[in-house]
Structure formats: C-alpha cells, structure tokens
Amino acid sequence: MDFSRKGVLKKQRTIKSTSKRLNTKIRITLFRVSLICIVCLGIVGVVAVSGAIKGIIESAPDISQVNIDPEGFASFIYYSDGTLAQKLVGAEANRVLVSIDEIPDVLKHAFVALEDERFYEHDGIDVYGIFRAGFSVLKTKGLGFGGSTITQQLVKAKVFNYGNEPNAVDKIVRKIQEQYLAIKLEDIYTKYEILEAYLNNTNLGNGAFGVQTASQSYFGKDVSELTLSEASVIAPIALSPVFLNPINYPARNAERRQSCLDNMLHLEYITQKDYDAALADDVYSRIKQYDDEKAPSTYYSYFTDEVYNQVLTDLQTKKGYSLNDASYMLNNGGIKIFSTQDKTIQGIVDKYFKDEKNFPAIGEGSYYEMKYNLSVYDDENNATHYHLNDLLEYFKDFKDTEGLYYHEPYTPKVGINSLGYSKEDMEAKIEEFRNSKVKGNQVYVENKQITLQPQTSMTIM
Predict the structure, then answer these.
(1) Conformation bin of residue 92: beta by default, left when phi > 0, alpha when psi is -120 to 50
(2) Fewer Cβ close by (within 10 Å): the C or N end of the chain?
(3) Residue environment code for 171-180, b if the CB has 16+ CB neighbours within 10 A, otherwise e
C-alpha cells in the first residue's frame, strides 16, 4: 500500500471519479425515464383530448335537423285602402323577411367586411381568425373567444340560442360543436343562402330583427334604399344590439362604423370617394330626427283589439287552430289582415281625440300616469335593474307642497306617485333618479312613459 501523500491523493481521486460516474449514470437514467414518462403522458393526453373532442362532436345536434330559416314575423292590419294601420309583434318577431336579391350590396359588404372578411373563401371556420382569437384568449386570460364566422354566428343563434353558457367548460363544448356544424352547414347551403339567413335572423337592436326591420326602425325606409353611410351604421349593431344601438349610443356605434368603412375600403368594396362621402354624412342627426318624429305605437286602438279578437276566433272555429296556435299565428306568423276601417274618417276623429285641449284640465279630471324602468350595466356587462317602485322609494321623503302628485285623501303630501299633475316634474324626478344610479360612463337602457289619463278614443267601424 502506498501511504505517501501522493498515493493518498490518487486514491481519493479514484474514489471521487467512481462516485461521480455513478451519480452521472443515475441522473442520465432518471432523465431517460422522465422523458419516457413525459412522452407517454403526452400520448395519453393527445388520445384523451382526441377522444373528448370526438365525443363532443358525436353529441352535436344532427345537421339535418338544423333549420336556419328565420322564425317569427310581424303581422299587419291594413285600412280599407290598403295602407298600414297596425303592426302585431310577438317576442323576437319584429321581423320582415327579404331575399338576398332585395338586400343592397353595400349592406352585404358592410356585414362581411366587419364580421367575416374571408366569408367567401373559408369552409365555415376561419383558421386565421381562430389563431387570432387564441392569442387574444392567452393575452386577456378570458374566454371571450371571437373569431366566429358568419356561418358560426348563424349556428350559434339557431342551434345554441345565442350561447351565454354558465361556465367555461360548457362554452368550450359549444364552440367545438359550433365549428363542426358550421363546416357541415356549408356542405348543404350556398354562401348566399347562409348570408340571407344571417341577415334575416340577426338582432339589430331597438326591437328589430333582420335588416328590413332595422332599416325601417332607424331610417324609415326599405332595406333596398339604404346608402353606404346608413349600411355602415346598421352592420356594427350585430356585435352588441344594446350597446351599439345608434339611437342610444351614437358615439359607440360611430367608432365601430369607422372600422366597418376602413375594412370596406381595404377590401376594395368601396372607393376612397365613397369612403369620404360616407364619413361626411351627418347620419346620426337623421337617425335622431326620425326617432323623435316617429309616432309611438304602445297601445292598440279599440278597433285593432276587436279585429284581433275576431281573427283569433276565426282561426279557431274556421281553421281548427288551438288558442295558443292561433295567438302565435297572429303575433308571430307574418299574416296580413285587411280591415273595413276607413283611414280618412278615422284620422279626423283621432285628430280631435288626441288634442288635450278638448278634455278636462290637468287636475280637474285629467292627470298623467308614469311608467318607468332602468337597467345599468357595469364594465363586465352585468346589469342592475330598477323599476317604478325603486323610483318612488327614492323620493319617499319628497315634500309635495305644491300638490304635484296624487295622494290619498286625508294623508300627508309626502313622496311621489305614479299618478300626477306635472309632466315636467315627472321628467325632472326621472332624470335625478337616473343620475343617482348611473356612474360616470356606465351604459344604461331606460324606458319611460308619461301618458295623459284617462285614455279615451272613438272608433268608426
């Protein structure tokens, strides 16, 4: 044995070298085992995900059972001369069907440019749009998705009732099935049939469904008469029928309208001259003016009520409909009813019955009735709803020294009532209440009615 200093050091190096080699070998072995496990887990994961996707697709609705045609149409009652007397509208039925040939190119191009610029190229799903939406999800850490084609939006509306799933898992399942059905749908229908169905189905705010009703609602004209400027107002509404309504939120609509026109110019749907002319048009003033001038149609006349009841009865006794089916047909069936009422004669009667001067003075037999509700939306689009009772509660301590509101006899004149004698004060109270509930730039939707009572009318049958 060599116990010299040199021999001892050599022995130590030999021991360390053996130990190091052993440790290295163990590490390499562990690394290889780990790598094999990761690969196996990856394979299992891919198989599991593939199986899950396959199961989701197999549980999707049968494409042969999917109906893309719009459902629910307004019915109309006409005077004896053929002019419109009254529209009958059920839930989501304020719609008038138009063919794709009746819809002007500027409106079709506006929707395509804004909602799905590769609509005429893809087979139902837009791969580029999916990747873009994926990056957006990673960036925002949310599941807003986006990237839906017009075909997907149609499937979402007709098959999945516009989505709004309660959790992320259900939303992912719906999205996978939606993409699958969109591809299948394009095997059955042409692009023009899909676009026609989409433009007749879509919710365009202000109670309007489909482009024909939207055109009448905002501009008072047939859809075929829309200009580029007007088309670029309607197309943006599809993204958010509440928040992009050009009557209530013209600034928000104008921002997306700018994007619509930019895209149309980029895609060469319009020229620079067309673009400049559209932007120069004061379209929102026209919308406001038309909305202000529109006659409200909240109540049906006594004649309309009688026509409605007679047709309801005839549908049951002469056509064999049940009460529910007859009611649905009247309000959602898009039927036309031609009555015996003379428009000219009835117009003369209405002129005098609408004149407040022909009735007792306010407070001496006449009064105003107030109806009110308010919805306020936060940054995440969650709504808080307020109703007339909330308004009355807010002013429960108001000292009504001027007798502006009705109070029960022999009770203190404190608080306000839905019945009162000053339309101006009702308007002021509504404004004060709204300002107390709407903070900063919060979005809100308000419905108010102040109506002279008692309501009276005369109908010439």
Answers:
(1) left
(2) N
(3) bebbbebbbb
- 254: in domain: yes
Cβ pair 447, 433 in contact under 8 A: no
Backbone angles phi, psi at 135, to 5 degrees: -65, -35
Beta bridge mates, 75: 88
- Strand 75-78 to 84-88 pairing: antiparallel
In angstroms, the CA 40 to CA 37 distance is 5
First CA to last CA distance, the chain? 132
User: Which of 191, 128, 200 lies closest to 158 in space, CA to CA?
Assistant: 200
Q: Are residues 35 and 177 in the same domain?
A: no
CATH of the domain at 120: 1.10.3810.10
Alpha-carbon distance of 359 to 454, in angstroms, equals 10
Encoded tokens for 120: 């005429």
pLDDT at 298 > cutoff 60 = no
Dihedral sign of CA atoms 91, 94, 97, 101 in order? negative
- Distance between CA atoms of 30 and 52, rounded to whole angstroms? 32
- Confirm if 4 and 10 have CB atoms less than 8 A apart: no
Of 127, 106, 145, 252, whose CA–CA distance to 182 is shortest? 127
Q: Do the beta carbons of residue 160 and residue 148 sit within 8 Å?
A: no
pLDDT for 41 beyond 90: no
Greatest Cα-to-Cα distance within the chain, rounded to the nearest angstrom? 134
Tokens coding 213: 């009703």
Q: Residue 350: what are its φ and ψ, rounded to 5°? A: -60, -35
d(CA 118, CA 112): 8
Using the structure block, give the residue that is written with the tokens 């807003």.
144
| The predicted structure's pLDDT at residue 201 | 93
Q: Is the dihedral of CA 413, 419, 420, 425 positive or negative?
A: positive
For 102-118, the pLDDT digits (tens) are 999 999 999 999 999 99
pLDDT per residue as tens digits for the range 135-177: 555 454 454 445 689 999 999 988 887 777 778 888 888 888 8
Q: In what order do the strands lie in the sheet with 336-338?
A: 84-88, 75-78, 336-338
The answer to whether the beta carbons of residues 89 and 81 sit under 8 Å apart is: no
Q: Rounded to two decimals, what is the model's pTM?
A: 0.73
User: Which residues constitute the domain of residue 156?
Assistant: 94-293
Q: How far apart are CA 213 and CA 74, in angstroms?
A: 10
